[in-house]
Design goal:
The complex is a heterotrimer. Chain A has a domain of about 160 residues: P-loop containing nucleotide triphosphate hydrolases (Rossmann fold), CATH 3.40.50.300. In chain A, about 30% of the residues lie in helices and about 25% in strands. Chain A has 9 helices and 10 strands. In chain A, strand 1 and strand 2 form a beta hairpin. In chain A, helix 3 runs parallel beside helix 5. Chain B has one domain: ABC transporter involved in vitamin B12 uptake, BtuC (Orthogonal Bundle). Helices cover about 70% and strands about 5% of the residues of chain B. The radius of gyration of chain B is 22 Å and the shape is globular. The relative contact order of chain C is 0.21. In chain C, about 75% of the residues lie in helices and about 5% in strands. Chains in contact: A-B, A-C, B-C. At the B-C interface, helix 6, helix 12 and helix 14 of B face helix 3, helix 4, helix 10 and helix 12 of C.
């Protein structure tokens, strides 16, 4: 258990030994993580490291080959994605994935279809993103990338989830836009949400995260709090550059450490 | 060692790639024996059996063509009856102009191949469902156009005017042999297509069309070739139909029932395998013969079985055999022999019936 | 001037074709399923109506009330079971399965009802008569009524899709199944609703067709399916008004074809269909937005 997390509280989201395959390719290899209420947990890593796969599996869009996912104490590994959404896990998918033949407001209305009770309403989303109300009747294809991202976030928020999964918010957006979008995070957290996000932009992730994990080729190479890791450690974990000195123990979750690729057990020939 | 060093070390070992797992010379010999035995049939069996077998030849030819289209090229055509009809009519037209119906048959087949080109031009840009409907509309249009010509029988049809002056038994025998030849050639053609580069392109497209295109595979050309080959094959079957019936009626030769029969035979026997159509034709003929007196029933049962098989046993009866016995009579795939695991190989290159389509 | 009358007939018949087509368009638009058994479902609607009327002796016009909801329920069930199972495999499988379904239905009908044509005779004298405009134009009330019903149904459907909650869900699922799941929507249920609408409307159209003309076991594929498709393709997918336009164009082409030569009625329609497929496969009215 990492220091800084309140002793005695239960994780709202817990992933244990998650292994996911895409056909014959192993995308995730025994990934574990725990997200506690109110945290911003960031998953970083290069392209193809398995970050989006992790998020999508948590959301229910992929079936794990091994491992389990627990949400709010209940095992949801076999639960269909729509039921997971209804019970409080909302995902903002990679690439926004707005409904193109629906207007901005209709997108939000769809998000609110099976909403839980809570502070987030369509009106509140309009308050969060000031420009949106005036353009709520527009087709989403006419919006800029950043605006679409805001609508996608709004669509997830109106469901009043307990855990918000953000998949690569920065993708395709200018840095200043990305900053503005991440700027809304405090307001989101203030309403009691927990955030698990995936980011390729490491500095952005480090700025907002309270806890992080780095993936490389489907394996965890680093875990800890941003304040406890150095830039060199992150770099090594991200790119998997250096190999471990002989005799170093294999990584087994929990404390901060650098995991050399190839050192975990169970590697296939 | 590091991941990089490990991969380099692994690639230095030798993997072997072969076309077949065992010595399939035995299959070739077996096939030859079967063909020879079949060729002897006119001397051994009665005319009734011959007629049934000719019917089987027609269905088998059609089925192997439809399998090529749907199982390998991903083209679900519900309009192959257009070629069946055209093949029959080409034979009729040539016969009207005093060509022997036997020599007319190969010409008719080639003619259908030529006819396939403008038809492909019309439908080639369409995707699955639209493609299916378009082929159906095309076939119906061809039917309606042909029916407008009274010189070839108009809406009621016409008998072949110049049938050879041979006894019934000899005529039946010749028809039978031509039917056998058509079927053997059709199966051979399918085998050669799949074993060739064309077959490789089709498999690549089946796996990942975008990747196939970007590696330079001429996908459109491959599909067109398959469409033309299927046109020739179905045309040959249609010509055989004309020869065996000695009469050509538009609603009969252009009936969508032909597509139903060839599709069901393929689905039940095994979509995406060469052996599948053979098995499927056998099942079809058994059903048809046992239920012949209950006319509509055999199609109902065939249809229901096909539906169930399509959902639950993707690769049909042959797929079930293949999975359990790992047999492949016609070697068109590739087998990978891992030096680290001698005696075990992994097969690749199955047709579209597998889980990725 | 004789042409004007035929063109008007063609327009009115186009309404019926559009009614046939809207279910097909919906199923294809929402779940990418080309239901090759679609035409046969209309015929089943007709035969069930015949059966219901024979048993209960209710007036023909009341048969809608029983048959249409029945078919809608059948559509939901068939979608959730057979069609969804096929969809889970691949699009190719749905083509094969719906084709199989079509053959099974037709031969089943042949087996039980023989190859004879049936018709739903309408007793109401007003409906079977016609009125005239000027000396050249005669319009049967029945045909006009069918056209009006078709327009009403299409308008209602359009309204449902664009304004109602379920309509929104249907459009969302049609756009992006996965994203809809992430918002808590069970797309299988939405597919079921879409199928129910499709089956219901096509049954309605089938009964109307039975009142206007005759149907036989093979009418589903001989006539209805290809016409429905033609209307969808000509008009363009994704727009119900496009489907109406497509139906009307089809009807008018057929009327013109019939004028040229009696047997060219269908041929003319198919040629127009093929022309559109080749020249402008997206149809005359393109979708509002790209997917």
């Amino acid at each position: 258990m990492s220091e800084g997390r309140a002793a005695g509280t239960e994780p709202i989201l817990e992933v244990r030994d998650l292994t996911v395959h895409h056909g014959q390719l192993r995308a995730l290899d025994h990934i574990s993580l725990r997200v506690f209420p109110g945290e911003v947990y960031a998953i970083i890593g290069a392209n193809g490291a398995g970050k989006s796969t992790l998020l999508r599996t948590i959301a229910g869009l992929h079936h794990p080959t091994e491992g389990s996912i627990r949400f709010d104490g209940k095992d949801v590994t076999k639960i269909r994605p729509e039921r997971r959404a209804i019970s409080g896990i909302a995902m903002v998918p990679e690439g926004r994935r707005l409904f193109p033949s629906l207007t901005v407001e209709e997108n939000l209305q769809v998000g609110a279809t099976y909403a839980r009770k809570g502070p987030w309403t369509i009106e509140r989303v309009y308050e969060l993103f000031a420009w949106m109300k005036d353009r709520r009747g527009q087709q989403t294809a006419q919006l800029s990338g950043g605006e679409q991202q805001s609508v996608a976030i709004g669509r997830a928020l109106v469901a009043n989830p307990r855990v918000l999964l953000l998949d690569e918010l920065s993708l395709g957006l200018a840095p200043v836009v990305v900053q503005r979008i991440y700027g809304m995070l405090p307001q989101v957290l203030a309403t009691g949400l927990t955030v698990l996000l995936v980011e390729q932009d490491v500095s952005q992730a480090l700025r907002v995260a309270s806890h992080l994990q780095c993936l490389l080729e489907g394996r965890t190479t680093l875990e800890g709090k941003p304040s406890d890791v150095t830039a060199e450690q992150v770099e090594a974990a991200y790119f998997g550059l250096r190999s471990a000195p002989a005799g170093s123990p294999p990584y087994r979750g929990g404390s901060v450490g650098v995991v050399p690729p190839g050192a975990t057990e169970g590697e296939e020939a | 060692m590091t991941a990089v060093a490990e991969t380099t070390a692994r690639s230095a070992e030798k993997y072997r790639v072969t076309r077949s797992r065992r010595n399939v010379a035995w299959t070739g010999v077996g096939a030859l024996v079967v063909v020879v035995v079949l060729a002897m049939f006119p001397y051994l069996v009665g005319a009734g059996t011959e007629t049934i077998l000719v019917q089987a030849f027609i269905i088998l030819t059609l089925a192997s063509m439809w399998n090529l289209l749907a199982g390998y090229a991903g083209l679900v055509s519900v309009g192959q009856q257009a070629f069946v009809g055209l093949g029959a009519y080409f034979v009729l037209i040539l016969n009207i102009h005093s060509f022997s119906m036997f020599t007319a048959l190969p010409v008719a087949a080639v003619g259908c191949g030529v006819a396939a080109l403008p038809m492909w031009w019309l439908v080639s840009r369409l995707r699955s469902g639209y493609f299916a409907i378009a082929t159906w509309v095309l076939a119906t249009t061809v039917l309606l156009i042909i029916e407008k010509f009274p010189s070839i029988g108009g809406g009621t049809g016409m008998s072949l005017p110049h049938t050879p002056n041979l006894g019934t038994a000899v005529l039946e025998a010749y028809t039978y042999w031509i039917g056998l030849a058509v079927t053997v050639l059709a199966l051979l053609a399918v085998y050669l297509v799949l074993r060739s580069r064309l077959g490789l392109v089709l498999t690549a497209v089946r796996d990942d069309e975008v990747a196939a295109r970007s590696s330079g595979a001429r996908v459109g050309l491959a599909r067109m070739l398959v469409f033309v080959v299927a046109g020739i094959g179905c045309g040959a079957a249609g010509g055989l139909l004309a020869v065996s019936q000695l009469i050509v009626q538009p609603t009969a030769v252009f009936s969508v029932q032909w597509t139903a029969e060839m599709a069901f035979a393929v689905i039940i026997g095994g979509l995406g395998t060469i052996e599948g159509p053979i098995l499927g034709t056998i099942v079809y003929m058994i059903l048809q013969q046992t239920l012949a007196s209950y006319n509509a029933w055999y199609l109902i049962i065939l249809g229901l079985v096909a539906m169930v098989v399509a959902i639950f046993a993707r690769r049909g009866l042959w797929g079930l055999v293949d999975e359990h016995l790992h047999v492949r009579l016609f070697p068109v795939g590739y087998w990978l022999w891992d030096p680290a695991a001698p005696g075990r190989s992994r097969g690749f290159g199955r047709g579209r019936g597998g889980r990725h389509s | 001037m004789v042409w004007v009358n035929d063109i008007i007939q063609g327009i009115l018949v186009g309404g019926l074709y559009a009614l046939f087509a809207c279910g097909l368009s919906l199923m294809f638009g929402v779940m990418k399923v080309v239901n090759l058994a679609h035409g046969d479902l209309a015929v089943i609607g007709g035969y069930v109506a015949v059966g219901v009327i024979t048993v209960t002796h209710i007036p023909v016009l009341w048969s809608f009330v029983i048959v249409v909801p029945l078919m809608a329920v059948l559509g939901y069930v068939l979608q959730r079971t057979v069609i969804q199972a096929a969809l889970d495999r691949s699009i190719l499988t749905t083509l094969l399965v719906t084709f199989g379904l079509s053959v099974v239905i037709e031969n089943g009908l042949l087996q039980f009802f023989s190859a004879n044509s049936h018709s739903l005779g309408v007793d109401n004298a007003i409906i079977t008569s016609s009125f005239s405009i000027g000396s050249q134009i005669t319009i049967a009330y029945l045909l006009l009524l069918i056209f009006v019903v078709a327009v009403v149904v299409l308008t209602g459907l359009q309204f449902f899709l664009s304004r109602s909650r379920y309509g929104r869900l249907i459009r969302a699922v049609a756009d992006d199944q996965e994203a809809a799941q992430l918002s808590g929507i069970d797309y299988r249920h939405v597919f079921g609703i879409a199928a129910a609408i499709a089956f219901g409307t096509v049954a309605l159209a089938g009964i109307a067709y039975g009142m206007y003309s005759q149907f036989a076991p093979t009418t589903g594929t001989d006539t209805i399916l290809l016409f429905a498709f033609a209307a969808v393709v000509i008009g363009g997918l994704g727009s119900l008004w496009g489907t109406l336009l497509g139906g009307v164009i089809l009807g008018v082409s057929q009327a013109i074809g019939a004028q040229i030569s009696g047997s060219d009625e269908f041929l003319a329609g198919y040629i127009v269909f093929l022309a559109v497929l080749v020249l402008r496969p997206q149809g005359l009215i393109a979708r509002r937005s790209t997917s």
